[in-house]
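Example record used in the benchmark description.
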Amino acid sequence: MPHLVRTPLSPKLSFSPETQTTQPPPPPPKDAKYHAQCRPQPHNHNSSSKIQRDTSRTHSSIAAMANAQSPAATVAATFIETKTDIMSPHDVPIMDECPICLESYNNEAPTRITGADGCNHIIGLKCLTSLLSANPNQETKCPICRTVWIHAPPRQRDPAVRRWAMMTQMGPDAANPRGPRAPGRRMSLQVISIDSDSEESVTEESYMQYRQEIADIRSRARNNQLSRRQRREEGAARERERERNGGGNGGGNGRSNPAQRIDNSGVPARGLTIRDPFATVLRQRYDTSRPANPGLRNNDYDISMIAASRGPSPFRLSSSPEIIDGDQARLLRERTRRLEHKEEELRNREHKLNDRERQLGDKERDLHRREQQLFVREQRVARREREKDEYLEMKQRHLGEIRAVAQRQQDELVDAVDGYLS
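Model output (structure tokens):
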């Protein structure tokens, strides 16, 4: 009966039919404890066959992943085939375990990363496949050292391009959502990457456009309000002038004239279209736009003209010229006179301010000149003070010298008298 022979450096099995006993193992190295853990355990032919079957099954599963239509499976299969090395469970220490699921390598093949710079960790094949297939559109890194394994694909910045890519990836059913599909075909879930930068730019552009529209509406409303207020003021001025003219002609408050008793509600104003039967007949019968004929006077025509002149001026978007009557001309002349008077007052004030500024400039120059004179005078006084101090110092020195000479002469005189007496 053949016996198994275990070699310390190879996990492969061999048979030796010549020997009936097991060959003695080589002497252990110095670090025997560590090599005892790393040394593969004895196994039989059944375990070797199981390892070979698992390895062949692993390669067949990788080939099936590569042939799949899913982009995630294609990316995972490509990375495993090109940048990994599938090992045998006996090639790693018996105490090692997968860093993701924390299980030993008895149920899955250990896989070493070989195609990433700076990363050579060992991870279980199943966990590695799940990790690579999770997010194919994102960057994949090593869970231990954070080394980049697969870089993220480039983003689609244009929304139209992104929508076209979504339609092409989803297949023919995207063009017709309710159309019939082939029997037995299942829609595969696709991970859609939405670019937030383009959406943010579109939102910002819409917001700026809305703000511009709101500003335009406010500007138009402000102009309309100003024009309406101006029309009301001009209409009130015309009414006051008309009442004064009517009262001076003996018509009382201006209501005695039958032409002024026409109701404005039945007569269309200038530039306005009123859907009223009476106004329609009046507009068809009397053309208010024709010039007056002094030879053929018509009371109805005069009444319609007076009523049209009493109506408010229409709102015009275009800068069309308006016919200015006598009241408006007087009002404009009065306003022009006021503006000219104010302009004259402003010019006078400007002249006065210029004269005042000129006077202040002259005073400032005088003050500057006087300041310079005072500075020169101050320097002169300081120089005289220094000269006085020097003169006093010289006089003090001369006085000391005179006192010393007098004291010396006095001493000599005393010595001479003492010598003469002695």
